[in-house]
Structures are given as C-alpha cells and as structure tokens.
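hi!! sorry for the late reply, been swamped w classes. u asked for the two structures so here they r. pasted raw, havent cleaned anything up. first the sequence of the first protein and right below it the tokens
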Amino acid sequence: MDKIYNSISLTHWAGTIAKCFDIEPPKEADTPLEWLVDALKADVGGKFDRVLIYNPDAQAQWLIQKYTEDYAPMMKYMKYTIPMQTVMPSFTPVCFGTMYTGVLPVVHGIQSYSKPIIKTDCLFDALLRAGKKTCLAAVEGCSMSKIFIDRPIDYCFRPYDGEVVDSAIELIKEDKYDFLAVYNQEYDDNMHAKGPEHPDSIQAYRNHVASFVRLAEAVKEHWKDHNTLIVWATDHGVHLANEGYGWHGTDIARDLNIFHFFGTIPASNK
C-alpha cells in the first residue's frame, strides 16, 4: 500500500501555472498539464489575468481523504483535484524548490533540509520577464522566505500564519498584484511536535482551510474585474513516526502523495 504512488510529478506544476497565465514557463521546467490548462481556461472563457496560490505546508493526500468533510469549505471553490507525487527527499525547501522551478532537486540544487537561495530559473523569474506584478507572502524565516529571496518582486513576511493571511487580504484589496502566493505552516509545526492527528494538528489544518476561504472570498469581492485562477498547492505529505510525532522526508506514499486543487473565479464586472 505504501508503495503506490501518484503518477503526475510535481515538476509539471510550474509550467502548468505559467501556461494558464499565458507566459513562458521557467526555462528548464517540465511540460505543463495541457488538459488541465484547457479545462481551467474553458471555465472562464479565455485567459487568466490574476493568480492566487495558497501554499499550506504538509497537507498529505491521506489526511484530506480521511478528513474530507473538514476540507469541504475549501473544496467548494475548486473544480479540479489533481493527485501529484512530490519529490525526494520530501522536505519543505526541496519540494517548494521543485514546485516553483519545475525541475528535480538534483537540478535546482536543494537535496536536503537546507534553505539556500535557488539560482535555477523559477516561476517568479518567469513572471518578472512577463511584466507581472508579483508578491510572495510568507512566515518570516520559513523556506519560502529564504529560497526565493533576492528577486525584484515584492515580499510580505510576517511573524506567523494569521498575520500573513491578514496582510495578503489587504494586498488583494489593493488590487495591484497579478500573482500572489501565500504560504502557511501551522499544521506542519503542530504535527511535528504532537503528531499528524493530534487535536491541535487537526485544528491547524482547519485553520488553513478557513484562511483559504477568506482569501478566496477576498478575491471574489475585490478582483471582480479579473479572471482569477486559485490554487491550493501543498509541498509534501506526512506520516506518524514510531516516537509518536509527525515526520516526512521518506520514500513512502504518505509522504509523497499529495492533492493539488485548482479553481476559477471568473470576472463578474466584464
């Protein structure tokens, strides 16, 4: 059972987002999922001019399958659920490195739990070349705040998840960014300390769902002039270690199998 892996590699993610946005993908990125791009564009009758990415840490496929009703408030905004296989070793900087570059860890260079700046061409670079106004909102000191730094995009780093989401909503209200990525980590923190299904961990992923809903509602209210792609994109899964805490990084399905969700919010003022 633990050796049954999803067939779609995380390396396809960056190219798929770029194709939805009608921009050139990162230079070495794997091919986009053309069938998904076509389906998403058909939903809005054309192309997207806004993208909102929500990156909640460690949302394993098995977790969503087991507690599906908890995730239902997020799912009602989504039309497509894509089973994906993340990369090894399945640690946060390794996986987000692959997600945003579209290449394997051996290419982008992070192959352990470390946070060097990625030099490989990534989605943020592609957005810059296309003239898209871009912002990354994340927790101070997290992997996302480290590995994609030093690029001429806007950064919004805050002490923890709540402040990140509050700030992201204010950015949505300003209606000036074409691409906004929002990273949260409360579930990952709790499951490492207490286990994947501890009550505090369950509350943490429920908080992620609630945060995503707040972001989606803000998009509906303040990006009415835009066709918006909304994406729930986690980095890796999680398993219960023998010591009773949560862990990931290993070559098992619980760590590697993840769901990514894709939805659309068509412009309502056009």
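now the second protein. again sequence first, tokens right under
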Amino acid sequence: MISLQRRNPGNRYVFEPEVLREVAHSHLDLPLEEMIPAITRELAERYPGLIETEPTWFYSNAGGTMGQVAMLYASLREYVIFFGSPIGSGGHTGRYRFVDDHSVVLDGEMWYYGEGDLRRTEYRQGDSVHLRRGEAKGFRMVDGAYILEYARGPIPTMLPFGLADTVFSTLDLTSLFRTIRLYARHVLRSTRRRRFTRSRV
C-alpha cells in the first residue's frame, strides 16, 4: 500500500483525522480485544514503518483522570494513541492553546460539557470528538471507555498538563519514566524517518 506521506507532498503532518476515523470505523464490529489489534495492523499497513505494532500500555494521570495509554506514533508535531479505562474516570481535558485533539470512541461512552453547558453531550461508539485549540471541557469515561486519539500541533506544549498529576499527586515515577522514555523513543524514530525520507528526495 502506498504511504500516505507520499500522497500529501508538502504537508507537514503525516496523519489525517479522516483517515484515522475511517480505519477505526472499519473495525467497530469487533470485540475490543480484537478491535484494537485490528486497528493497529491496518494503520501499520497504511503508514509503513511509522506505527508501533506492539505498543506498551502504561498509566496516564492528567487533569484528575486516570486511564491507560498505548502509543502508536509520536513526534514533536503529532501523536496517535489508544486511551481509556475499563472502570471509567473523569476530569479536565486540558486546555491546549496550540494543539487540536481528535478522538473516535471505540467502546463505551464519553460525556463532555463545556463552560456554561447545563447539560452534558454524550458520545458513543463510532462518534467523533474534536477538542479545538484553546478549548477545554470536563469529561467522563462512563464505567469504561476507549478511544483512538490523534493530536496535531506542538506536542511538547501538552506535557506539563500530562505530567503534572504524576509529579505533584500520584508520585508514580514508574509511569512517569515510561511516558518520557516511550515518547522520546518515538520522537527519535520519527526524526530519523523524516531525515531518511528527505535524503531520498
């Protein structure tokens, strides 16, 4: 299959939210335990050499929310992850002034509300959620939920929010080191890939 990088010459981003949504939707009929590997395999086919096909799950505590993350791709400008919890959680989405965040609900329900909203907005399997730059919401994973999440923008600007709960509350240094190590590994891999691609042009 042709790499999508070659289909978008001059595009500074590798991934498109519409493509990720299409891939997710094509596997929603599977049980979650089969769905996540199936989505991972198809993304690896569509984006050769970029997707981590056997991602490591690790805890994430941010904005009062505890969940787990499997990182499929990360660079200084993008990331693609699975995120969720089998028992539910909720808190603050974060307010990312320079990053757009796109999600597709794979399993369960996600509830959101914005400032001034008196009632929640409910998202279920297959629904898409777009958190625009500078926007923040309260959210809840109801009982249990999982999403495929794509962030686009200067990713390092998200790290203070993403790591603050761990540093100042849970003190889970194991998860902190895993997060930093895995993100750094992905960034180095994406940088090498970009240099290699440029050298062949």
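hope this helps!! also noticed smth abt the second:
Strands lie at 57-62, 65-74, 78-85, 89-92, 100-113, 121-123, 128-131, 138-152.
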